[in-house]
Design goal:
This protein is mainly α and 364 residues long. It is built from 13 helices and no strands. Helix 3 crosses helix 7, helix 9 packs antiparallel against helix 10 and helix 9 packs across helix 11.
Length: 364
């Protein structure tokens, strides 16, 4: 087993996968003032994730809750059903929405009325639905992180030549020194996605649960891979392009939960504009151009990482086009109905309905 692991490790870190020809890992030892990203530094993202979870706990409790109350969102306390092992077992293992005949059978088995069984299942289903306040807290945390990341990312990048001239991302590659700002930018972003993975089980349950798992793992893998290959300059640009649109969506969600319809509509329109500029224009014609086309000027023999990373970035662009299509449909409906409909729908749960009422874009 040890030999197999050692062989796999040597294959994974084979130089031809990660770096140009005639370069070895020995060339990436810090020297002459040059500092390079090191794979073992990625272990630090795990404790950073727990630091972010602590920050999230205090921000949700001491900032998000008072803000939600100021916006008129109340903390709805749901009535718990009476403990009943038979009904609880049926709820978990069989069905959350039993038929009328099943309810009658359960009523006989529990020696109670059909009305009480129906009431028990209704209350038990409601416990599974996150409250509007809880949704607001999660949206507030993501909004806070994306907004902070966008501001800090701009401060880190605005004076860098590659922020204005994309060709500069490849000048001197792969011997580009790692800046402290790049280190912290990467650590915070990867740590954030680790923290989202750690809380998927306790956050609001979504129908696209597995899609979120895949998305977070892909984001971590893409950022970690770019770190190991020292594609840090391009990596920071990719992060910045994505975060600058996301906080507008989270802000729209927050005001949707507060039922501030006009504010929510305005924020969603701003988000749509930011999304199309950053992900439909800048990402393919700026970022992808730098990753697909420009490396051929610096190396005639692309490494394996060139195809791996560009493959993932192209898949990401495909998702951008799909999400852009959905956003366009929402905006088109809103415009052609001349404002008679809202981009936002009430986010409050209807007691006994078994599901939350919200627009499709809330899942983005």
């Amino acid at each position: 087993m040890a030999y197999i692991l050692k062989t796999l490790n040597s294959w994974f870190w084979w130089e031809n996968i990660w770096m140009p020809i005639n370069c070895t890992w020995a060339d990436f030892v810090d020297h002459d003032g040059l500092v390079f990203p090191k794979p073992h530094q990625l272990y630090a993202t795990i404790p950073y994730a727990f630091v972010l979870l602590i920050i999230r706990f205090f921000s949700e409790r001491y900032v998000a809750i008072p803000l939600a109350k100021a916006l008129g969102i109340k903390n709805v306390r749901r009535v718990k059903p009476q403990p009943n092992p038979v009904l609880e077992s049926y709820f978990r293992e069989c069905s959350r929405h039993p038929s009328q005949s099943e309810i009658q059978g359960l009523a006989k088995k529990c020696n109670c009325t059909v009305h009480l069984v129906e009431k028990w299942f209704r209350r038990r289903r409601n416990l599974e639905i996150p409250t509007v306040l809880r949704k607001f807290q999660e949206a507030f945390w993501r909004f806070s992180f994306y907004l902070t990341s966008s501001i800090v990312g701009f401060l880190f990048l605005y004076d860098k030549p590659w922020f204005y001239d994309i060709w500069q991302t490849w000048v001197g590659y792969p011997f580009q020194t790692l800046l402290p700002s790049q280190y912290w930018y990467y650590m915070a972003e990867i740590g954030f996605y680790w923290s989202l993975l750690f809380t998927l089980g306790i956050d609001n349950k979504r129908k696209d649960f597995m899609a979120h798992v895949v998305h977070h793992l892909a984001a971590i893998g893409l950022m970690s891979g770019s770190w190991c290959g020292n594609y840090v300059r391009l990596g920071t640009l990719v992060i910045f392009v994505h975060d600058t649109a996301d906080f507008w969506l989270e802000a729209a969600k927050m005001f949707n939960y507060a039922r501030w319809e006009k504010t929510c509509n305005m924020l969603f329109i701003i988000f749509s504009i930011a999304f199309f500029i950053t992900r439909i224009i800048l990402f393919p014609f700026w970022i992808l151009r730098a990753t697909l086309y420009q490396p051929t000027y610096y190396s005639t023999t692309p490494v394996i990482a060139y195809f791996l990373f560009n493959g993932m970035l192209l898949i990401l662009q495909g998702l951008h086009l799909y999400w852009g299509y959905l956003i366009f449909k929402i905006l088109k409906r809103f415009v052609f109905l001349k404002g008679e409909t809202s981009l936002c729908l009430p986010a409050e749960e209807k007691e006994g309905s078994g599901r939350a009422l919200h627009p499709h874009w809330l899942g983005f």
